[in-house]
Amino acid sequence: MVHFPKLQADQPSDIIHQRDSSASSSSSGSSRKRGRCDSDTQDQRPRGKMSKAYDDVDTDSEMEALVCPTSCLQTAAGLRLKRDDRYYFEDGSCVFLVEDTLFNVHRSILSKDSSSFSTMFSLPQGNVIAEGLSDDNPIVLSGDTPDEFRHFLWALYALPPELLIVTTPSANLLHLIDIARISNKYSFKSLETWALDAIQEYVNRKPSPILSAIPSPQSYVFISDRDGQPRTPTQEETAHLLTCLIRLAQMCQHERLLNTMITLLRQLMVSSVQYAYLAMTLADELDLRVLKGAAYLEVMHKAVVVRKLRVDVLKPPAPTNASSSNLVHGDSSSTASDSSGEEGSLDESGRLIITRAQQLRLLAGYYRLTSTWDKLRTPPPFEHSHSCSATWHQQGCTQSWLEFWKEKTRSDAVMGLGLADVLGRLRLVQKEYDRWGSATYMHHDCRMNAKKAIGEVIRRVEDALPDYFAEPGGFEDE
C-alpha cells in the first residue's frame, strides 16, 4: 500500500538527502546525520506569505541562532573530528565545525554578498579569543550537515566553467536545493537567487527531468541521486522532492518557482488521492490559498474520510443483537488502530486517514457546496440587451432562459455527479448551453450575456473554494 508519511517541519528526509558515497565512507562512526527538505530546523527564518517580505536584519541575536558557542563541542566529546577533504584549506582563515567535520575556508569569501558571516566577523571580540582560528576553537554551525555545507561552499569557490553545469542536463537538483537553503539561512541573497533560478530552469526543462509523464504515478523518472546515478524513484520519494521544492520556494519567497511547483502538484493530484492529500497538507502547513481549495476539493471527490454505515437501505434489516447493533463499520479495536495509523495512508476499508481538523474542513466544505447548489436552482441573472428591453421580446427571452436552466440542471448527466460537485455540474450546464443552438424568443446579445453569467458563477465558486473549506463557522454566510 502506497502512502505518504505525515508532513512535519522536523521530519527527516533521508529519501531525498542521501549522502555522496565518498562522504559516507569517510563518516563512519560519526554521529547521526539529519537530512531535511529545506527549512525543517528551528533556526530557519519563519515562513510567511508571499506578500510579506522578510526584513534583512543582521543582529547579534540573529547570529547566535545560526552558530553554536564553542561549549557545544563538549556534547561531541566522544566524536572523532575530521577535516574535510576538499574544503579544509591550509591557508584558510576561519574554521567551522559542521557535525563532525571541520572546514577551513577564507573569511573574505564568506564575507561576500552582505552575508550574516560578514556581520559576525565584524563584531568586536573584546578580550575573548576569537572563535574559528584553530581546530580546537572552531565556529560551530548547527542545523546543517557536512554535505549541505560542502555543496554551498562549492558554489562559492567554483570557477565559471564549473558553474555552467547547472544549466545542463547533468545538473544535480539536490545539490542546488542545498545551496539555496544554506544561502537563505546565511543571507547570501545573490547566491540564493542564482540557485533558485537554476532550480526553476531545471524543473521547467522539457521533457521534465523530475517526471517523465503526467499523470501516471507509476511513470515518474528521477534524474539522479546525490552520486549522480540515474534511478527510478518510489512515489514517496517523488512526494518528498515536491515537498522540498515547495517548502524551499515558499521559504525563499521565489514566486515563480512556487507557482511552477504548485501547478505541477495540481496536475499530479488529479491522478492520485495520495498527491491530493500531499497538496492539501502542504496548503495547510504553508497557508497556500491558491492550492488549498483545489486540493481539498480533490480529496473530497476521491477519498473516503468517514466510516461507512452497516446499512443497506435496499435490503431488509437483519435481526439485531448485541454484537450487530453497531451501525458503523469497524469496532472499538479497529477505531483504536485507525487512530494510530499513519496520516496519509489508507486503512483496510480504503478510508484515507487524515487529521480531525482536515476532516472537519472537508465536511464543512461538503455542506457549503451542497448549499450553494441549492441556491443555484434559480438561474443566475443577466442583463438584457437594450434592443431586447425596448420590445415585448424580453419576456420570451427570460422564459427561454428559465426553461433552459431548469431542464439542464436536472438532467441525468448533471444529477449523476456528486451533490457537492458544484463546479462539475456548472461546467456541464455550460457545455449544454454552447450546444443549445439558436433559441426561440432569446435575443442574440442576451444569449451572450447569459453565457457570461454562467462563466462568472463558475469563476466565483473557484475563487471561493478555500473559503468553502475553512473551519466550521468561519464562512460569512453561516
UniProtKB/TrEMBL annotation:
Residues 36-46 have a biased composition (Basic and acidic residues). InterPro entries: BTB/POZ_dom, SKP1/BTB/POZ_sf. Residues 1-56, 320-347 are annotated as: Disordered. It comes from the Eukaryota. Signal peptide: none annotated. Residues 92-157 form the BTB domain. Residues 21-30, 330-339 have a biased composition (Low complexity). This is BTB domain-containing protein. The lineage of its organism: Eukaryota, Fungi, Dikarya, Basidiomycota, Agaricomycotina.
